């Protein structure tokens, strides 16, 4: 049973990676939010398994916190924001989707290579997944770059944070509790601020196209 | 009642209070009062540290040593003087219709929270909490940068949030890697991220992990310092918000970010012993100085120009700390102090000048000496100070940095000199017409608070001529600890 | 080559020929039920084949020999594919030919000939269908190859029989790379078998049809063979998918009695698979044609991820 559980961590990690790819390929913002919620859910599942297998009780608490924040609160906030801003579709990308996915594959290879020596040094039960965590972070970064609208950029930002959290669980079996509380608090406040922000942008420009926000350039 | 508790609690309590009362007529005075109380607590803390030496508090979670004690007092001091400046400044803004009551409440409460978060970041011993506080400090100012709701300020705030957010995420990854290294060397748990423990055990940290961690941490916290090439957010964010915010962002937050880099550098030097951190900091610092100087000469907005000047000086400081050794570190620490004082003084003067002219474009501001001699002289002297004219403190620190560079890294010195020269020419040539000549400007409704400008410049002058013994002692001890 | 192996081989081919229309009928029934319609009856495909075989085959005057020969080639290669996929037993005389790459080649052979035949007459529908079929095939083939490579990494061999034996021997474990490869395989088989969301097998709208456009000109016994071959293709894909990802129940070499148990196991797996396919078809809407390359690119990339993940995790 325990070996199956240990293997399921790998499965959750791969699900995380596939969801990160799926988010790059998505056009509909509503589906993006659902994918992000799924990502949060698999993150919670992976943390719970690590908590059970290593017996670190503070990981249960951090899994609970992640659940409340990333699976419940933030998706609800995002839903309300997009409902009030009336954004559903986003057909604006800088590159077309197959090209973006190819770049994503290259980033995954880079991340796996980068993480290999470090994973060998870790003693965590989930150390093999450090490469996947780093790949998720890089893919979210890619998503932020190629999207031209505000909401997908924000979701990319949050998904990067998911990847980092998973990296912490994978590499080190969880950071100290107080640090995780602080990070969660920062994330929540950050989302609230971003929500307010998007209203302000919409008010000013009547659109959430980020390319309106590129006027302050060097001349 | 320990002074450290007061130093941390007063700004936070003040923030809550001002969230409720920030739109009243006397809110500016209340804000200044809270900042004065914080300054008093910081002074008391400093006295305790002078008397007793470095402090470790509350289960080793907070640590005050020569490196951060003067930064704590500096932050509290500049926070206080800026609050004095913001009192009449925000009154004028309100009269011009740019600040609604809601925005005033937001401004005052976030100002105090911002100060509180910076003090938290400076005094914490836990690297994870340091990250949390840095990010919180950014978050408190994001909405302030966009408070005027113009297209340019929204863009500036968005870039600020996103770019700094990405940077800080890299710093988080670096922190996670450090935790990994710490777990292997000294065991995990809540104390594995305590800087004091890590500094003691730094030789047993795995070099591979630590070098990768340092790269991420330098890039991450370096984004907040304003190092090229991750500096894009800085000119916009510093130029678009209300001037008090520009002053504290340029003067204080950049210092706190550099402080975080220094703490990590000490750990990396202990673990690696190879000089990689030093080389990276020298490289980024030099690049920053040169690029910033050239961009500076092309600016037309006065606050953007001085924002690029901040980038240039932070690059110079990074370069100095990269050089290492007792003299360069001493110079870097001195530069941190005087730059904060002089840059905020410049922003005070510039803020009032822009208010008089109704615009931040330099061609609209003319003849300040005629309409308001104090603003004009403040700007003139401040610009001379920041450009490194003796006998202001900036000259002393730049001189020490340049001589050390000539001795140890001779090929870098021409770049530095050229960059400093370009900046000198640019700023001087722009400030001259702003200060001298005829004017079409008219005085402001509320008398500007220019005492802070001259207090800062006076302090910078004093530090150029004479450094008090305890400050000198802290600089030396901190320089030794930073090592290199 | 053992007697039991030969027997298993013949049995596999006969079973495939017999069961393939039944599988198609089962899927059609479930699609009808899920969509709230009355089902046409489980044995309807047999009746259709019977009817078609008894009808006269009308061939255009300017048809070349390719037109007449193509259905037979298609039927033959599909039957061969069904025969060499390890459906019942891994001890097949033709097992050495059951290499992943050879299988892809068989499917490609069938595709080439049917496309040529469709273009042969010169009608616009035929050419339309041929071009679309080639588009799908061009993108699906590398994806399929990648999936087969990813699945073969665990057993270090591209022989399907080898893969089945290796996986069935190991204790049950979660292989994330296989899970991802399985999803990619499902996407590819949806595209190759002309199923929703890539192509509606029941449509005759020129805007949307791919497979139907290819066979529009056929009638009588030719049409019967082509329809049978299409069912065989679906059967073959299902069996390959089951062999790669759900290999338990297949008889090992040297255990001829196990074949008796392998047949119910196969039927059970196909039953469940058929229901799942009907479910997928009902839930999804058909994609617009220009989205199909993205769909297949996603399948390809998922397979690449499966490869990379295997390299990283060793699983």
Q: What does this protein look like?
A:
The complex is a heterotrimer of chains A (219), B (484) and C (315). Chain A is mainly alpha-helical and 219 residues long. Chain A contains seven helices and no strands. Chain A is globular, with a radius of gyration of 18 Å. With 484 residues, chain B is mainly alpha-helical. Helices cover 78% and strands 1% of the residues of chain B. Chain B contains 19 helices and two strands. Chain B is globular, with a radius of gyration of 21 Å. Chain B starts with a helix and ends with a helix. The mean pLDDT of chain B is 87. Chain C is mainly alpha-helical. Helix content of chain C is 69%, strand content 0%. The two termini of chain C are 33 Å apart. At the A-B interface, α4, α5, α6 and α7 of A face α5, α6 and α8 of B.
Please give the number of β-strands of chain A.
0
Name the chain pair with the biggest interface and residue counts per chain. Answer: A-B, 49 and 47 residues
Q: Helix and strand string of chain A, N-terminal first?
A: HHHHHHH
Q: Helix count of chain A, per DSSP?
A: 7
Number of strands of chain C: 0
State the secondary-structure class of chain A.
mainly alpha
From the alpha carbons, calculate the radius of gyration of chain A and give it in angstroms.
18 Å
Give the radius of gyration of chain C: 19 Å
Query: Could you tell me how far the N terminus lies from the C terminus of chain C, measured between alpha carbons in angstroms?
Result: 33 Å
Task: Give average pLDDT of chain A, whole number.
Answer: 81
Uncertain stretches of 5 or more adjacent residues of chain A:
none
């Amino acid at each position: 049973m325990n070996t199956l559980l240990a293997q399921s961590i790998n499965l959750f990690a791969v699900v995380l990676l596939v969801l990160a790819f799926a988010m790059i390929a998505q056009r509909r913002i509503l589906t993006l939010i659902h994918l992000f919620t799924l990502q949060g859910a698999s993150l919670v599942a992976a943390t719970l398994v690590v908590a059970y297998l290593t017996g670190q009780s503070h990981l249960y608490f951090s899994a609970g916190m992640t659940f409340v924040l990333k699976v419940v609160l933030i998706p609800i906030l995002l839903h309300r924001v997009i409902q009030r801003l009336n954004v559903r579709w986003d057909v604006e990308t800088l590159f077309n989707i197959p090209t973006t996915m190819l770049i994503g594959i290259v980033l995954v290879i880079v991340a796996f290579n980068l993480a290999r020596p470090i994973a060998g040094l870790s003693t965590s039960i989930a150390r093999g997944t450090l490469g996947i965590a780093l790949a998720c972070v890089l893919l979210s970064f890619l998503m932020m770059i190629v999207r031209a609208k505000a909401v997908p950029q924000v979701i990319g930002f949050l998904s990067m944070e998911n990847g980092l959290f998973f990296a912490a669980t994978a590499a080190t079996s969880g950071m100290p509790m107080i640090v995780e509380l602080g990070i969660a608090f920062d994330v929540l406040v950050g989302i609230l601020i971003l929500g307010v922000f998007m209203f302000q942008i919409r008010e000013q420009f009547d659109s959430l196209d980020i390319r309106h926000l590129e006027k302050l350039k060097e001349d | 009642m320990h002074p450290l508790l007061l130093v941390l609690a007063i700004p936070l309590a003040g923030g809550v209070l001002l969230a409720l009362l920030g739109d009243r007529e006397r809110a500016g005075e209340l804000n200044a009062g809270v900042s004065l109380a914080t300054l008093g607590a910081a002074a008391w803390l400093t006295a305790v540290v002078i008397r007793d030496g470095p402090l470790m508090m509350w289960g080793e979670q907070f640590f005050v040593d020569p490196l951060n004690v003067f930064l704590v007092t500096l932050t509290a001091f500049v926070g206080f003087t800026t609050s004095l400046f913001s009192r009449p400044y925000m009154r004028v803004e309100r009269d011009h219709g740019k600040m609604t009551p809601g925005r005033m409440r937001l401004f005052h409460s976030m100002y105090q929270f911002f100060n509180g978060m910076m003090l938290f970041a400076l005094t914490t011993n836990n690297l994870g909490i340091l990250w949390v506080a840095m990010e919180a400090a950014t978050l408190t100012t994001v909405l302030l940068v966009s408070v005027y709701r113009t297209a340019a300020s929204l863009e500036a705030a968005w870039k600020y949030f996103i770019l700094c957010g990405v940077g800080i995420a890299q710093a988080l990854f670096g922190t996670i890697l450090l935790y990994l290294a710490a777990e292997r060397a000294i065991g995990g748990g809540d104390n594995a991220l305590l800087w004091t423990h890590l500094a003691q055990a730094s030789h047993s940290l795995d070099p591979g992990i630590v070098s990768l961690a340092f790269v991420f941490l330098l890039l991450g916290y370096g984004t907040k310092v304003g190092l090229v090439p991750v500096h894009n957010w800085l000119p916009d964010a510093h130029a678009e918000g209300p001037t008090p915010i520009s002053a504290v962002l340029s003067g204080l937050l950049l210092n706190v970010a550099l402080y975080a880099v220094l703490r990590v550098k000490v750990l990396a030097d202990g673990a690696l012993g190879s000089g990689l951190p030093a080389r990276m900091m020298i490289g980024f610092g030099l690049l920053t100085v040169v690029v910033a100087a050239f961009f500076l000469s092309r600016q037309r907005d006065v606050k953007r120009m001085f924002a690029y000047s901040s980038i240039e000086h932070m690059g110079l400081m990074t370069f100095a700390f990269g050089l290492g050794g007792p003299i360069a570190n001493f110079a870097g620490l001195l530069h941190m102090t005087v730059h904060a004082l002089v840059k905020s003084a410049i922003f005070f003067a510039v803020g009032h000048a822009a208010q008089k002219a109704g615009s931040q474009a330099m061609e609209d501001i003319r003849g300040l000496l005629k309409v308001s001699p104090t603003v004009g002289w403040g700007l003139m002297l401040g610009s001379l100070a920041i450009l490194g004219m003796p006998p202001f403190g900036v000259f002393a620190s730049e001189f020490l940095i340049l001589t050390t560079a000539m001795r140890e890294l001779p090929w870098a010195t021409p770049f530095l000199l050229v960059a400093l020269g370009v900046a000198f020419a640019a700023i001087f040539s722009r400030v001259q017409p702003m200060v001298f000549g005829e004017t079409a400007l008219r005085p402001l409704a509320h008398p500007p608070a220019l005492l802070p400008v001259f207090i800062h410049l006076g302090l910078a002058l004093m530090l150029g001529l004479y450094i008090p013994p305890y400050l000198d002692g802290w600089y030396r001890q901190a320089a030794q600890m930073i090592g290199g | 080559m053992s007697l039991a192996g030969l027997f298993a081989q013949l049995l596999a081919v006969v079973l495939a020929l017999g069961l393939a229309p039944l599988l198609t009928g089962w899927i059609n029934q479930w699609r009808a039920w899920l969509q709230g319609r009355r089902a046409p009856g489980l044995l309807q495909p047999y009746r259709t084949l019977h009817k078609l075989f008894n009808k006269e085959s009308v061939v255009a005057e300017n048809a070349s020999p390719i037109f007449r020969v193509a259905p037979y080639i298609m039927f033959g290669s599909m039957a061969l594919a069904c025969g060499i996929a390890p459906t019942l037993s891994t001890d097949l005389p033709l097992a050495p030919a059951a290499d992943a790459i050879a299988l892809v080649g068989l499917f490609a052979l069938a595709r080439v000939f049917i496309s040529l035949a469709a273009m042969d007459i010169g009608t616009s529908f035929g050419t339309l269908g041929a071009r679309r079929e080639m588009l799908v095939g061009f993108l699906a083939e590398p994806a399929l190859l990648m999936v087969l490579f990813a699945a073969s990494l665990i057993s270090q061999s591209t022989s399907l029989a080898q893969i089945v034996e290796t996986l069935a021997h190991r204790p049950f474990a979660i292989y994330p790379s296989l899970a991802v490869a399985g999803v990619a395989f499902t996407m590819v088989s949806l595209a190759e078998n002309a199923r929703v969301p890539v192509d509606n097998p029941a449509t005759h709208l020129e805007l949307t049809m791919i497979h139907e456009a290819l066979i529009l000109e056929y009638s009588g016994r030719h049409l019967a063979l082509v329809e049978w071959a299409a069912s065989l293709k679906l059967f073959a894909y299902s069996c390959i998918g089951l062999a790669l990802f759900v290999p338990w129940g297949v008889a090992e070499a040297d255990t001829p009695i196990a074949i008796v148990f392998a047949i119910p196991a196969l039927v059970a797996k196909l039953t469940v698979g058929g229901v799942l396919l009907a479910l997928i078809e009902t839930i999804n809407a058909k994609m617009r044609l220009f989205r199909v390359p993205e769909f297949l690119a996603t399948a390809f990339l998922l397979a690449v991820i499966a490869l990379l993940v295997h390299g990283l995790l060793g699983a």
